[in-house]
Design brief:
Elements (H helix, E strand, L loop, with lengths): L21 H4 L1 H7 L6 H17 L3 E8 L4 E7 L6 E8 L6 H8 L5 E6 L5 E6 L18 H10 L1
Parallel strand pairs: 3-4
Antiparallel strand pairs: 1-2, 2-3, 4-5
Length: about 160
Amino acid sequence: MSAGNQDTEESKPVEKKQTPIWIVHHPVFQQMNSLEVDDRSQIYAAFLVYMDLTEVRHWAEVSCVKSAELQLVLLEAKEKEDSSIQTVLPLPSDRSLSHMSIRHVLDRGHPMLLCAVASDSTLVYQRMTDGLVTPDPPVGPFQDVDRRRQRKRRYQN
């Protein structure tokens, strides 16, 4: 038998069964699948956000709920044990979102976070509010700078 034509047990191609990844077996992912949302990429995005909220940010009481009107998985969670519930809308970054969809989530009565999930699993959170919200004043020692004096120095140099 020549070295180039070995048909031993070790060299035969092994029939590979498609091994499910750990996510498929995770109980929360299975629960999200049981909500009967058709958009598989949104379910995957919701699971990534769930893992970020629970394992990285240590939010409390994170649960998933279905929005029947939007056909999406939403997450409800508390940032801290004694804080109020917030609704998180996980959305793949290539998806669009209408004002009506945002209004529907805001009408649930909880503060809302939109979480854009990029294809590389990067997560970007954006707080959504019902109307305009005045920002908090800056924190720290700040001084007013005379802009005229700055411009004058720039033109002299």
